[in-house]
Design goal:
alpha+beta; 14 strands
Length: 196
């Protein structure tokens, strides 16, 4: 310990400390970027239908708020039981491709679902759940409810979204995490997300 303190006091320790801190920051940033890129390159792709939402907050910049049909999960799709106590939960949602090309909820659970052929499992963000009845629906988010666009281009996309003409292609990793791959207007890609 005394030799380390001596190096610090001599000035060499500051350089060594700065290199270590910079290296750790680079590793953490690289891990964040690689995690997102891994989902975009290797995840299963699903096409989601968007639904209109209230107008956006103009103070937060140019982004489009996205709402999905799969964000409202009917309680009758829950397998494995509904927790009796209220509390923060994560919902696992099984999606299956329909004839129109869009994916919809076929099953959900408060426990991890096993994989099945021709389905994808999404993991919701934590949400508060309590007092659910048979006819209810749960409002869940998946971390893909906001899409940033170049300045000045959000309003036309919002108008197309409100007319029901916007779809989102999403990549889903094996652990249920989702990333937006592209935004489509009238079935044509308008924005594609780069890997890095």
């Amino acid at each position: 310990m005394n030799s380390f303190m001596a190096k610090l006091q001599s000035g060499k320790g500051y350089l060594l400390s700065a290199i270590i801190v910079a290296g750790l920051q680079t590793l953490i940033l690289g891990k964040i970027i690689q995690s997102r890129a891994s989902i975009l390159s290797d995840g299963a792709e699903v096409l989601l239908k968007t639904a209109p939402v209230d107008p956006r907050d103009f103070l937060r910049g140019d982004y489009v708020v996205l709402n999905y049909d799969i964000s409202s999960v009917p309680v009758q799709t829950v397998s494995g039981g509904i927790p009796a106590e209220a509390g923060e939960r994560v919902l696992w949602v099984r999606l299956k491709k329909q004839e129109d090309g869009f994916w919809t909820v076929t099953e959900s659970s408060f426990h991890e679902l096993p994989p099945q052929p021709e389905t994808v499992i999404l993991r919701s963000q934590p949400f508060y759940s309590g007092g659910l009845a048979a006819g209810d629906s749960m409002r869940v988010e998946y971390g893909i409810e906001r899409y940033y666009v170049p300045e000045g281009e959000g309003k036309p996309i919002e108008e197309a979204r409100n007319d029901g003409n916007v779809a989102i292609a999403v990549r889903v990793s094996a652990d249920g995490s989702a990333q937006i791959r592209s935004l489509l207007v009238d079935g044509k890609p308008v924005y594609d997300e780069p890997l890095y």
